[in-house]
TrEMBL record:
Coiled coil: none annotated. It is an enzyme of class 2 (transferase). Its EC number is 2.3.1.-. One of its GO terms (molecular function) is acyltransferase activity, transferring groups other than amino-acyl groups. This is Acetyltransferase YpeA. Residues 3-142 form the N-acetyltransferase domain. It comes from Methylobacterium bullatum. The lineage of its organism: Bacteria, Pseudomonadati, Pseudomonadota, Alphaproteobacteria, Hyphomicrobiales. The keyword Acyltransferase applies. SUPFAM superfamilies: Acyl-CoA N-acyltransferases (Nat). Keywords: Acyltransferase, Plasmid, Transferase. It holds the Pfam family Acetyltransf_1. PANTHER family: AMINOALKYLPHOSPHONATE N-ACETYLTRANSFERASE-RELATED-RELATED.
Amino acid sequence: MTTVIREFQDGDAEAVVALWHAAGISRPWNDPARDIAFARRDPHSTILLIEREAAVAATAMVGEDGHRGWVYYVAVDPLLRDLGLGRAIMEAAERWLIARGVWKVQLLVREENGATRHFYEHLGYRDTRTICLQKVIGENAG
Ligand SMILES: CC(C)(COP(=O)(O)OP(=O)(O)OC[C@H]1O[C@@H](n2cnc3c(N)ncnc32)[C@H](O)[C@@H]1OP(=O)(O)O)[C@@H](O)C(=O)NCCC(=O)NCCS
């Protein structure tokens, strides 16, 4: 079994977006192609993926904003759950941030996604007891 952890490359988009749809993390208001291009536009963020037998098995978008690290688009192929790939992609994201000097990482979990919350808590993530406020800004609002 060949398993590789690597950064997103040109040509990965179709498989990655298919995985996001299969994992149920795509949202109609988020254009995945735009999100991919934006994450890859400069060295502050990237998309990591686990390739298993030459197929995309897991992803995590990771970046730092000058203060904290953030992780988005964490997904494992539904047929490959409970094999340690979720832990492996999260650890890869944390290593990516540590290599850039980041000492705290955070992420957002939808309130209805209780199972995933427990997965993150199992990996050491703790509820910061804050709420996330968001506003769409600028002329490029999607
Ligand atoms: C959440 C998700 C990434 C977990 O991936 P996975 O490959 O099945 O998880 P792993 O097998 O790597 O599990 C890692 C550890 O977490 C534990 N774990 C997994 N799911 C868990 C859960 N729901 N609650 C508590 N612990 C959990 C495992 O037992 C394992 O423990 P161990 O390493 O100490 O033995 C996967 O279920 C997924 O893609 N979900 C849908 C997409 C999603 O909701 N993404 C997050 C958006 S915020």
